[in-house]
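User: Thanks for the earlier help. One more: ABC transporter permease. Can you show the sequence and predicted structure together?

Assistant: Of course, both are below.
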Amino acid sequence: MSQLTLKTPSTGQTGSGPLAWLSRAGFGVITLLAIALFGWANPVFLTFDNWANLLQGSAILLIVAMAMTLIVSAGAIDLSVGVALDFGAAFALVALKTWHLPWQAAVGCALLGGVIIGLLNAFLILICQIRPFLATLGTWFIASSAERIYTDGGGSISYRRMAPEYHDLAVGNIAGIPTPVVIVLALWLVAWLLTERTLFGKYVRAIGQNGEAARIAGIRDRR
């Protein structure tokens, strides 16, 4: 019996070696080099207080970036993330100002506001079969219009009599570390464990890399 041998053309890239390592860690290397350069130019840049201030000022952006990383890993996009944040803030404000709920309930209401936006996106994408770009863009228009109606044209809303514990979530500190930084680090750990140490994370990346192959392999991408 003759033996059939198939040869695949070499692409010039391997799964190991310096180039493969650089492709995986290149962004981290560039970031470390930039930090070293700024630290050399100004030693204050590397101090604890400076980094605490940087992380505290970027806390919301970092939290959103972690969520967007998961979405992009699945091969999708979300243009409604801004109104999801706004809905969460509005729900928390109503809970504190109108319903006079405790601050823990206000945090739950804030999360509920974001969940509602996410469920609307899921309905449009999975049930209505609308592309994520168009679905989230439509959600952004709808939710931003609802915001303008609630705020009488987009005016700012302030509430100064909130519970100190709720206020400390933004400006407080834990063992000398700003509370937003602690929250970001905790969420980063959860996100890392979810994406790197669970089947869910592997499924998400598989769907993002090749959705059709993932479906053939039995991964339920609609979940």
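User: Great, one quick takeaway?

Assistant: The chain has two domains: 48-76+172-223, 78-163.
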